[in-house]
Amino acid sequence: MSDRSPTQSASANRRRTSTIGPTSNRSSAAIIPDRSSSLSVSTDTRSHKLVLITGATGAIGRATAVAFAKAGKYNLALHYATANEATREKLLSAIGDVLPAVIDVALFQSDLSSFEGVRRLHREVVEGFGRGIDILFLNAGITGGKTNPTCLNDIPIGIFEDVWRMNCAGPILLTQLCAPRMEQQGWGRVVFNSSIAAFTGGGVGPHYASSKSAIHGFVHWFGANVAGKGVTVNAVAPALIDDAAMLGEMDEGGKKKMTEKIPVGRLGRPEEVAETVLWLVSTGYMTRKIIPVDGGYHPY
């Protein structure tokens, strides 16, 4: 894979918003949209772990950002890919609704389909907060635009390359950039967002399933490599989550057929994936694991 230039760089829009919510109980909290450098972090929050969530405007990313914000003890660097104002505002609104008194949140825009975009995101988060990243949730990903192919040759090799780069190579590069600091301080958490498709092949196609199964091999190897250094490495593997981005234009009849395949009898919620991510972050004894969040769909 060649190292291509990004189509979008991390945004340099440097305006700072006022405190969100009543100032009487949220005086130290702030959301800083599109802040890419020289972020002023209040003294009250410097003891908080710094969390970077990629793909934070998607349903699972947004739910996870909200869950971390509710916990009230993490500073959040939230990545989003496209300059979609409605999507960005939805994320800001969701965080603002639960923003506790002492937490700093900054948004960073970058195209993670290029390695330079990955490096820029890491650099600007570290420069903005003036510290390294403690917790990494690698949530951004793509399906490649081809779904349910009937033949291997339905998927051009270029789509394989694009999906592997976005879903596998980019997240591994970001882990390479964040890991040295985690190892040095003796504490870190890395969580990938995989998919049940990595186990089953799924319905999207071999390009997507193979990009996710490659992550599983990385989790097993790297988790063992850093287990004695206070760093845990895991992945969640969701399936059949009730999310428009995942289900597309599926009608209620299609959803009903999918639901019938799930032992618990319903689709999953993004918040249930988020809860699993927070649990993996909270424990230092769980590592090298792939945790299905699938309502019993796949008995692993």
Describe this structure in words.
This protein has one domain (30-293): NAD(P)-binding Rossmann-like Domain (Rossmann fold), CATH 3.40.50.720. It has 9 helices and 8 strands. It has helices at residues 59-71, 85-98, 115-129, 157-185, 197-200, 206-226, 244-247, 252-259, 270-282, and strands at 30-32, 49-53, 74-80, 104-109, 135-138, 188-193, 231-238, 289-293. The protein has an 8-stranded parallel sheet, with helices on both faces. Residues 2-28 and 35-40 have low confidence and may be disordered.
Compact overview of the structure:
The protein is of the alpha/beta class.
Write the layout of secondary structure elements.
Blueprint: E1 30-32, E2 49-53, H1 59-71, E3 74-80, H2 85-98, E4 104-109, H3 115-129, E5 135-138, H4 157-185, E6 188-193, H5 197-200, H6 206-226, E7 231-238, H7 244-247, H8 252-259, H9 270-282, E8 289-293
